[in-house]
Each structure stands twice: as structure tokens, then as C-alpha cells.
Amino acid sequence: MHIQEWLETIPAVSIYLLVGLVIGLESLGIPLPGEIILVSSALLASQHGEIDPVVLGLCAITGAIVGDSIGYAIGRRGGKPLLDRLGRRFPKHFGPQQVALAERSFEKWGMWAVFFGRFVALLRIFAGPLAGVLHMPYWRFLVANVLGGILWAGGTTAVIYSVGIVAEPWLKRFSWLALGLAVLFGLAVTLVVRSRMKKAAQAVSVPAPAGAEIPAQPATRTPVGE
């Protein structure tokens, strides 16, 4: 059964709770389809009046902010060993290349990695725990977390709901055409993102030239953003 078809069978209150829970768990660091659930629920709200898009957006925002904050606390307490355990359990999401790419993004962009990470599937899962592991000052993390959560969760809900309202009559007449175009667009985006992620991961894991001097690692890590 398609996600949207399944969502149509449950009460509105359950949809609110489901959206908040799934997005919260994804933000905490568990690989779940939070964005798919949010988009499907927002589209469903545009077709069913009993689902309030404002309440739906608030639940999504709350789940995103709370989940990221819990992930930050877990990462701060668990440190590097936590990432190692997650890498063994979820190698496709927390493997060495993915961790190296995420760390490089955080070290380069700091709190902006948390903010913009909301819009990138990989960083959305990493943002909270990795910010804690790297000891990013909590106030910086909180600002980026709140702003990013509002813009991503609230913005996605508003945009998809509005598009659903406008496009519903057209989609009823050209449903198969719309489905085909959506699938082709999704495949194209997936291929482009995977290609860029692979190139970035390869750049991170390139070995040092033979004979090159490897600088000594410092005993302690300077917190990100300080």
C-alpha cells in the first residue's frame, strides 16, 4: 500500500502524532523517511479538510527541533564511540565515508551545517548527534536547529499543501502523466545527488601522497563554532 493511501485510513490526530514522531526520530539520528511522511501528509491535508495544515506543520516543527536536541545530547555524551556503533549498525548511513563527509561539512560551516543540513537527507540524520560529538556550543546549535526546523518543516508543509490545492483538479485529469513525470524527476534528482555524494566521499578518503609528512593530531578537539 502506498504511504498516502495508508495515511488516508487513520484519524487526523494519529497523522499529527505520526509526523512528529517520525521526523523526531529521524532528526535524532535514526534513518527514517521523515520527508516522505511529511510530504505525503501535507498533500493529504490539501485533499481532506479534517487535517489542519497549521497543526500538521507545528507537529513537524516540534518533532524536528526536539529530535535534533535529543540527538545533540546523545552525541555529546556518547562521543566518537557512538558513531562507530552506528556505523556498524547502519553502514549505508553512518559508514566511514559518510561520517568523514559530514565532519568536513561541520568543520567548514559550523552552525550553518545544522541549518542547511535540514534540507539534505544525510545531514538531517547526522546534524544533532554529530554537533554533540564535535562539542558545538549548544546556543549556536539551538539557534540553527530552531531556524532550520521552522524553515524546513513549516516551509515544506506550506509549499506542498499549497501545491496540492492548486494542482488537485489538474492531477485528477492527468494523473498518469503527472505520476510519470514525478518518477522521472525523482530518479534524476537521486542520480545527481548520489553522484555528488560519491565524488565528495572519494575526495575525503583520498590517501596522502607517498613520503608526505602527516601532521600530528592534537590531543583534544576544539569545539565547532568557537
Automatic annotation (TrEMBL):
It is found in: Cell membrane. InterPro entries: DedA-like, VTT_dom. The chain crosses the membrane at residues 12-33, 54-74, 109-127, 139-162, 174-193. The keyword Transmembrane helix applies. Its main location: membrane. It is a multi-pass membrane protein. The keyword Membrane applies. Keywords: Cell membrane, Membrane, Transmembrane, Transmembrane helix. Residues 32-160 form the VTT domain. Belongs to the DedA family. This is Membrane protein DedA with SNARE-associated domain. It comes from Streptomyces avidinii.
